[in-house]
Design a protein that fits this description.
With 377 residues, the chain is mainly alpha-helical. The chain has 17 helices and 3 strands. Strands 2-1-3 form a 3-stranded parallel β-sheet, with no helix packed on it. Helix 2 runs parallel beside helix 12 and helix 5 packs antiparallel against helix 10. It is globular, with a radius of gyration of 24 Å.
Length: 377
Amino acid sequence: KLALVFNLVSWFMFYAATRTFSSSMEASLTMVALELYVVRRSATEALVVAALACVVRPTNAVLWVGWFAMHVAWRCRYRRRFIARVFLIGLSAVAAMVLIDSCLYAHIHKHHHTDGCGWNMPVVVTPWNFVKYNVTFGVSALYGVHPWHWYFTQGLPAVCGTLFPLALLGMWRAWHQSTTHAMLVALIAWTATALSVNVHKEFRFLLPIVPLCNLFAALGSIRVRTKWLVASVLLTNVAAAAFLSTHHQSAPIQAIDHIAQHRGLNVDLLMQCHSTPFTSYTHQRAVRLRYLECAPRALPTLADEIATLTRDGSQSDVFASDPSEYVRRHLSHGKQPDMIVMHRSAHELSSSVLQSFGYRTSAVFVHTPFGDGAEDL
């Protein structure tokens, strides 16, 4: 029961698991599969759900490779039969995914590449494309690079919050209790270690193992459970969830919400790409949004070096180098928008140019209560 409480009040589960991330679906399916295996001891059903989780997000295969390797080494009596079952279900899931993806991509691009779903449609293997572009070509590195130890020194402590010390205590106790408990502890360590190989790291990538950390936090609190401990955990997590979901880095949501209240607007978002939820939040066709392109200038082939991947020369890069000059050229040579959204730091550098074209400040949205206000919109 305490594990359920910790999962319900966890600030990160509240903050991230409720969003439309593929990681959210991945985490849910992972917990269902582990429950089927550990509690109900239904390996076949667990394999089916695990395969679905890998289809939703290919990186989930990292977690299951570790889990099933431990299962074969420590728990499995009929290894050949189990391995055959893994390959059968896995290949079936991959075949179904390739067929569906290939058919749908062919249908989307039928006017340009093919006549639609049929024998002549191109074969699309999404996991391979995922690995090829994000790992082999290093596209993910364009979205941030972190040190190898980031998940252990910053990732897990942050997503667990005040439950992290209890989780460590619970893992230490669980390691000596049973093989199943030890496997779950090893699964957390294996997943975080395997994900650390990629230079690009995000908090949400840890979402599938956060419920396990909360489970061990409950185990760690058994002998130290007091009213003040439970109260402090509840208070800190609820406070963090409330603040991070309403005030922290909320300017993009407030700005898009403000735009959505005005129909028929042409709006230019002059800021780094992916700074706002864009049309996924406006839900209005009457509002036209344009943003600065930031796609890699050229994608490499297998013979090219990863270093050829760059955003140098993109609209976002040119704007960041000289906001004032970019705004002047943008408004002089193109159709002037009804509204422009930009960060306070860029606005201060280009305010005179904006005023010369008749623009004035209509709204200001605070990005976070802490900081110098440079990221305000």
